[in-house]
Amino acid sequence: MIRFLRGLTPFLFFSLLSTTALASEGLNTGDTAWMLVSSALVLLMLPGLALFYGGLVRSKNVLSTSMHTFTAMAIIGVQWIVFGYSLSFGGSGTLIGGFDHLFLNGITPDSLSGTIPTYVFVMFQGMFAIITPALISGAVAERMKFSTYCVFILLWSTLVYNPLCHWVWGDGGWLLELGALDFAGGTVVHLSSGISALVIALMLGKRIGYPMERMTPHNLPMTLLGAGLLWVGWFGFNAGSALSSGGSAALAFTTTQTAAAAGALSWILIEWIHAGKPSALGAASGIVAGLVVITPAAGFVTPGWALLMGFTAGGICYGGVMMKHRLGYDDSLDAFGIHGVGGAWGAIATGIFASVGATGLIVGNFQQLWVQLVGVVAAGVYAAVVTLILIFVLGKLMGLRVEKDDERMGLDQSAHSETGYNF
Fold this sequence. Notes:
disordered N terminus, mainly alpha, Ammonium transporter fold, two-stranded antiparallel sheet, globular, 2 strands
């Protein structure tokens, strides 16, 4: 045993020297390991979203709805490598990146972004790019043509997501230069997708029979499982956005858990009071609402303020969902009510409660709140206008909706020649 330890000592010594050398050159293996895990956690959110959305539709549309998410993984997964990353993080333009990283040109295994390999940063951000258009699919479920959807998410990611990503996170982006705070994508991901979802829902029109026909979720246990996977994956989404394994990630991890729990509790209590009984769907919706609202603030607020943000998320997003019944539009799976409304409130609340690494209204910085409002309006208007143009053009060229008989049959059969259940 003593001989073994003596033989092992030089190996450990040189391993330590090697690790120290890597750290001195800028590469931190701990940060890299954490970011690899975070990237995988964010990818886990995609099947989570497929389960969440898939359980909410009628059984005849479970596969077609799940396909919206998995198709985004394929289409945007390719687009990101070819030119999406370059448009988002290449160059130093004010409004859009450049073409210097097409096909990830110029990036090697030795390239670093901070203390992690650039390839890891590319993959982490790529997961964000994939899930954002997939969120929009909640508004088009059960009635949009699959071919049109595929073309739409490719164009939307290129013309909406990539520019917004550069505005907020890219070198030289105008909102970044203005001082806008968005720790993990409240504006870039949730506000943009939610606003776009509302535009598409209005342009598509209501599902056949809505709202007179009751269109209840066919599998709520599936939706709850999806919500659970989203909750787990969100730790990578938010805490990973620290781009390191230090204190900022620990804070974001804590605030994420806190806000999600508070959002779920808030929604349950409000629904219990308003509707007379708490529902499983309400609990799942509250979880997602709390997660959405804390996303832009995760590394900028203390756990106490995260608790408050989570509680307000439940009430505000509950009202956002109820709004569709009052106004009469058909946002099938409440993409706007949760992601659009929650993303906007989260960005504004960040300007109010930020006190870690940034200052908000509570510590006397009114300017930050103003900057956040500018960011919300600019991103919301831009996403809405471009989405409106895209949907108008695609409607003329390809058509937006499936035929009425196909919609009545269900898109699983009419679009994919499959069924979700064969009992």
